[in-house]
Structures are given as C-alpha cells and as structure tokens.
Specification:
Elements: H1 2-31, H2 35-73, H3 80-97, H4 99-111, H5 118-142, H6 146-163, H7 168-178, H8 184-198, H9 204-208, H10 211-229
Length: 230
C-alpha cells in the first residue's frame, strides 16, 4: 500500500503543481486577488490533491481489477443480452456519477436559467454513453472493425449537425468531451480488456481500446437528438 501511495502522490503532485504555480505567478504579478480568496485557492488545491490521490488509489485497487473480472466473466454466461445490459448499465451509471459531466450539466442549468434542464442533459448524455458502450462491446464480440463503427457514428454526427439547433451543437460536443473522465474511462477500458481477453482470436490492444472514442460520440449524438426534440 505504501509504494502505491507514494506513486499516486508523485502523479498528483506532477499534475497539480503547474496549475498552482501559474495561479501564484498571476497573483503576484497581474491579478492581485484578495488574500482570503487566494488562501481559499491554496487550501482547495491541497484538498483536491488529497482527494485525487485517494481516488486514483481506489481505481487501481478496486475498480480496475473488478472491471476486468466482470468483463472476463460475461462471455462465460453465454448470453449476448447480458453483455449488452451490463455494458449499458456501466456506461450509464459511470456517466451519471462522472464529476466532469455533473459540472457541465449544472453550468447548463445555470447559464440557460432553467431553459435547458441540467438533469435532462445529464441523463440523456448517460443514455447515449450507455448505448455506445453496449455497441462497442458487441463490436468486440462479433469482431467488427473499429473503423467501420467510428465511420458510421461520426457520419451520423455530421448529418445531425446540419439539423440540430445552434444552441445544442457546442453543448453536444462538450458533452462528448466530458463523458470520458477519471471515473468513466477506467471502468469502460477495464470492462473491454476483460471481455477481449477471454474471446479467442481477439487482440487486447486492438479490441480493448477505442471504447472511449465511441462513448464520446454516443454522448454527442444523444444531446443532438435532444436538441432536435427539445
């Protein structure tokens, strides 16, 4: 446990230190924010660093191993419906809990003053990710090339961009970018790696990766359809 703690401390320190240094430099040279606000920033940075360190330890210790195990066990049950259902459930649940998605949807509610309901965007995005993850799992099972799936999905995005209301197009692309955050990414990748590892003739590298791109497109398509129907 101690080596893992040191490793995660080093990773978090390398990630957060540049941000802190930039803010400190701006504070002392250009911005000159009130002292209490600057102290809040420093305290918040420490709290964020501790939280990130514990979060990443939890992912390495629990989420990734369990995700791989579940992915490897599903084909043994011999049910394609089970694979689709589990993939959708994981995609939906992790997106609803994804911090980046929650921040985006709260901002949508705030900026639009309730005209675009944040909760609606949240659950529509999660449904889009869930469907996309399920489709990506089926791609692994049937051995369909990733290029074909991505071509179909991105072609749909381009077509929808022509008829989606202007207010929803940037929101849709932002929704796609925030879905594959620190919580969703490890779960989906672990699930795919576990699934591809037990299927004969499947390369873990070729089949275990690419799901995050598919998941992002699923969120974009879902929000664009929401914009058309809203």
């Amino acid at each position: 446990m101690l080596p893992l703690l040191r490793e995660k401390f080093r990773e978090v320190f390398q990630a957060i230190t540049p941000i802190v240094l930039i803010v400190c430099l701006l504070q002392w040279t250009v911005v000159g924010a009130p002292t209490d606000l600057f102290l809040q920033f420093l305290i918040g940075s420490i709290m964020a660093a501790v939280g990130m360190m514990l979060f990443f330890m939890g992912i390495d210790r629990g989420i990734l191993p369990m995700g791989r195990f579940i992915g490897a066990e599903m084909p043994k049950k011999g049910s394609l419906t089970l694979i689709v259902a589990v993939a959708f459930a994981f995609g939906f649940a992790t997106t609803v809990a994804e911090p980046d998605v929650l921040i985006l949807t709260k901002q949508v509610d705030l900026i639009s003053r309730g005209a675009i309901a944040g909760n609606v965007v949240l659950y529509v995005t999660a449904i889009g990710v869930g469907i996309a993850v399920a489709a990506a799992m089926l791609r692994i099972v049937f051995g369909i090339r990733m290029a074909w799936l991505l071509t179909a999905l991105y072609g749909m995005v381009l077509l929808l961009s022509l008829i989606t209301p202007a207010d929803f197009i940037p929101l849709a692309y932002d929704s796609g970018s925030v879905t594959t955050g620190a919580l969703t990414a490890p779960v989906i990748i672990a699930l795919a790696l576990g699934l591809s590892s037990v299927l004969a003739g499947r390369s873990a590298v070729a089949n275990g990766f690419g799901l995050l791109g598919v998941a992002s497109v699923g969120a974009i398509i879902a929000v664009m359809i929401l914009g058309i129907l809203y």
